[in-house]
Amino acid sequence: DAGVIQSPRHEVTEMGQEVTLRCKPISGHNSLFWYRQTMMRGLELLIYFNNNVPIDDSGMPEDRFSAKMPNASFSTLKIQPSEPRDSAVYFCASTQAGVGYTFGSGTRLTVV
Amino acid sequence: TQLLEQSPQFLSIQEGENLTVYCNSSSVFSSLQWYRQEPGEGPVLLVTVVTGGEVKKLKRLTFQFGDARKDSSLHITAAQPGDTGLYLCSRNSGGSNYKLTFGKGTLLTVNP
Questions:
Q1: CA distances from A53 to A16, A20, A31, A58 (A)
Q2: N or C end of chain A: smaller count of CB under 10 Å?
Q3: Omega into B39 within 30° of 0, i.e. cis?
Q4: pLDDT, tens digit only, all 112 positions of chain B
Q5: Phi then psi for A67, rounded to 5 degrees?
């Protein structure tokens, strides 16, 4: 199993540009999570899908952030327009019924 | 917000020393997980504890869940440089809500 796959690993973009982060969860896992990690705030949950349906998006900071899960094997997190304060490492994780949480290697986003 | 407090925030020790890090909350956990995160990677699940008073061992790592299920500790015996990393605790929201809330972690450095 290749684990949770995220792309890109690194993204540097200019303020105001659109950024799209991608995630492929582990096959068979029915829950998918997007987290953001910063030194100041640690790991914060942004949004959580169960069976491709968004269950809790209370952590999405503002309308500039959106996430989709069109099928069980793919999810995107989009930031439009991006701002320097969005700079962080973004992680995707998946689990099957709360068992075996597995994180991807993350996308390090830098907005200049 | 059900906060998880981890202590110490930073710990730097010499190879061969023993150490303990802590995870505390004011509310009861349904379950608690410990993760280790290495630089440039996502967190990797080490253990899940569920029962108050439970002790689990993973080689040189001993995990204990408090009797009241509000706190947990991780003890490492004879630390090695390979133990270096960010140790995170997390709690599950319980029931069919699989989202995790994380503490900010303890950054451990083991010097050779």
A1: 29, 19, 9, 14
A2: N
A3: no
A4: 558 999 999 999 999 999 999 999 988 888 899 999 999 999 999 999 988 999 999 999 999 999 998 999 999 999 999 999 999 999 987 666 788 899 999 999 999 9
A5: -135, 145
Whether the Cβ atoms of residue B42 and residue A104 lie closer than 8 Å to each other: yes
A8 is written with which tokens?
């890109």
DSSP string over B41-104: S--EEEEEE-STT-EEEETTEEEEE-TTSSEEEEEESS--GGG-EEEEEEEEEETTEEEEEE--
Residues of A in contact with B100 (CB under 8 A): 33, 45, 101
For the record, the structure tokens of A50 come out as 């169960």
> Would you state the structure tokens that stand for residue A60, as one six-digit string?
């999405």
Residue B42 touches chain A, beta carbons under 8 Å: yes
A56, A105, A106: residue with CB nearest B99: A56
**Token pair for B48:** 């899940």
Q: What are phi and psi of B60, to 5 degrees?
A: -90, 5
Q: In this structure, what are the phi and psi dihedrals at residue A25, rounded to the nearest 5 degrees?
A: -75, 175
